[in-house]
Amino acid sequence: MTARWWCELAWLGGEDAEAGVLLEAGDDGVLTAVTSGVRRADAPDAEALGGLTLPGLVNAHSHAFHRALRGWTQAAGSGSFWTWRERMYALAARLDPDRYRTLAAAVFAEMALSGITTVGEFHYLHHGPGGRAYRHDAMGEAVLAAAADAGVRLTLLDACYLTGGIGTPLNDVQRRFADAGADGWASRLEGLISTVPAAARTVRVGAAIHSVRAVPPGSIATVVGWARHHRAPLHAHVSEQPAENDACLAAYGRTPTGLLGALEALGERFTAVHATHLTGDDVALLGASRSSVCMCPTTERDLADGIGPAAALWNAGSALCLGTDSHAVIDVWEEARAVELDQRLATGERGLHAPGRLLEAATAAGAAALGWPGVGRLAAGYAADMVTVRTDGVGLAGTFSGSGAGAAAAAVFAARGSDVTNVVVDGRTVVAGGSHALLGEVGPRLRYAIDSLWDTGP
Q: 304-339: per-residue pLDDT in tens?
């Protein structure tokens, strides 16, 4: 059976949108035909999507449980990344598999409502209190189930986390993150993979090195080898803080990027997350290796981390993708424009990133970084993942031509999550008329999930 959608306007790449685009998909959730210039009257049986339709947005870096910190940490007064991290540890200590699934499902649903169809969940909360292992990987299974509950496509990036810092033992909370060495990490991950049906169309499992602070060089090599053997995506937090760089240089005589390069982690399946405090040599190394870089601008500014060299990385050869990371905001539209707007603040120059390029970062580039080469475009052979935003609301009204000219700039610089009306994932409607079709009202779900974690607040 063929599913058909008639789009008033659809962005197929570049800077403009096409008018009257008919999308057709088979039972396998893959687009079989994309035809422009179709009148509504010529496709009466197709579902009508008024407004502007784009490929589903990709959130390439998420820590779902951090959503429970929104508002509380911002109200806590002065501090830094390191003081924020202590509050995050307090939250992590309270989670169990059931509460994790409830919270993550609500967070993934919030993402879907903002137009996100694919999520890269950088997952490091593996065990029970004190590091006690569950009989099976209950926390990983909770994340997989939560994504299914919310109807989003998922790459679970399972993170190896072994030390509390370079040469520093784990603290009590961090023991929940750690396995018995890199081999123990790999063994647990193989067990988790065995629970994923071979025919699963919307799940991938990849690997992550939490950071050079948390994984010693020998263990990094093990994770790199696992990812290479499985041809899986490999992600790592890189140079998020100057202190990380200083510690790495002192211990190994290299920057984090230099160390990862020496251990053969870099390459087309590798994504450096944050990459905020890079040297010129780091930028060149990431670009030459065709490593991707995931920028998380709303988190960087929330935690006062800094502004990464996005334009320099792009010019060096790195593809850029986007993540909402700590979920101070869940809005990939905002992440996309923040890449450009933050660079304007840092450089005093406008127009460093073309709008079409930023939409690529928000869609196909993010999908590729998560191991989904057939996701992120409205084209035959790609997954039927799409998001529609209204063009007659206060956000987008009057921002571009009715013919579709200038649609990319309007979407990047004016769209927001509240403009989303419809979301389709793998050919299935997940959001209709601005409401979540699978879980209903998401706000109360978030409130319940978060309130159950705190007695009187963080």
A: 899 999 999 999 999 999 999 999 999 999 999 999
Strand ranges for 95-167 from DSSP E = 116-123, 153-160
CATH code where residue 289 lies: 3.20.20.140
Question: pTM of the entire structure?
Answer: 0.96
Judge if 113 and 242 occupy the same domain: yes
Are 360 and 236 part of one and the same domain? yes
CA 366 – CA 399 distance, rounded (Å)? 26
**Is 274 among the catalytic positions?**
yes
Spatial CA neighbour of 328 closest among 74, 137, 144, 130: 74
Residues 338 and 419 in one domain: no
120 shares a domain with 86 = yes
| 344 CB-side CA count, 13 A | 9
Burial of residue 387, with CB atoms counted within 10 A of its CB: 0-12 exposed, 13-18 middle, 19 or more buried = buried
- Of 163, 157, 193, 192, nearest to 177 (Cα)? 163
Q: Are residues 270 and 133 in the same domain?
A: yes
Number of residues that this document lists for the chain: 458
Write down the catalytic residue from 16, 325, 331, 419.
325
Segment 226-272, tens digit of pLDDT: 999 999 999 999 999 999 999 999 999 999 999 999 999 999 999 99
CATH of the domain at 419: 2.30.40.10
CA torsion angle for 137, 142, 145, 150 (degrees, to 10)? -160
On whether residue 452 sits in a domain, the answer given is: no
With tokens 């994770």, the residue in question is 223
**Do 278 and 265 fall into the same domain?**
yes
Residue 70 has phi, psi (to 5 degrees) of -60, 135
305 among known catalytic residues: no
State which residues form the domain around 26: 3-55+386-425
Q: How many domains does the chain contain in total?
A: 2
Distance CA 359, CA 365 (A): 9
- Largest pairwise CA distance in the chain: 68
Token pair recorded at residue 380: 């035959």
Sign of CA dihedral 78, 79, 85, 87: negative
* Of 127, 230, 274, 436, catalytic: 274
